[in-house]
Specification:
alpha/beta; disordered N terminus; 5 helices; two-stranded antiparallel ribbon; 172 residues; five-stranded mixed sheet; Glutaredoxin
């Protein structure tokens, strides 16, 4: 009986070892919505219908910010995000602001009210929010030009100084 268990365990180990790696890219990097891992790829459209695919943005530092119009900390941090974006956009910094809880009209009204100069992406199916395991708003991911999540911040609002320090770290 013991020998049967050992043989079964060995066969299971061989089968699992031979299975293709789930969640790995061609470069062998593991994908996960946490620090030190390759950011999960996605494709969404902005309010103007322009399509953004995260993997197409390699070479740029990205702040991926999940927010909603009804979220007070989201509202509080947006002017700081907009200022840092304005200051670092020319150096290859991009903000992608993703809303899953708002209609296009609500998001457009919010963007106009705050004068947001960066892409506002609408995740109407919440597929991207699920892929990033969003449980609280705002949640932000600072992603290196190589596509690695360097920092994740849950809750907020983030200060302008904090955002600036994280962006400078991405651009080094």
């Amino acid at each position: 009986m013991t020998m049967g268990i050992i043989l079964l365990a060995g066969a299971l180990w061989i089968a699992l070892s031979a299975a293709p790696d789930q969640g790995k890219t061609a470069q062998g990097l593991e994908t996960a919505p946490k620090e030190g891992f390759l950011a999960p790829d996605f494709t969404l459209q902005d309010l103007n219908g322009q399509t953004y695919t995260l993997s197409d943005l390699q070479g740029q530092a990205v702040l991926l910010n999940f927010w909603a119009t009804w979220c007070p900390p989201c509202r509080a941090e947006m002017p700081a995000i907009a200022q840092v974006y304005a200051d670092y956009q020319a150096q290859g910094f991009l903000v992608l602001a993703v809303t899953a809880d708002d209609t296009r009209a609500e998001a457009a009204s919010f963007a106009a009210e705050y004068g947001l100069p960066f892409p506002i992406l609408v995740d109407s199916s919440a597929q991207v929010a699920r892929a990033y395991r969003i449980t609280s708003l705002p949640t932000s991911f600072f992603i290196t030009p190589q596509g690695i999540i360097q920092k994740m911040i849950v809750g907020g609002p983030m200060s302008e100084a904090g955002i600036r320090a994280n962006v400078e770290g991405l651009l080094k």
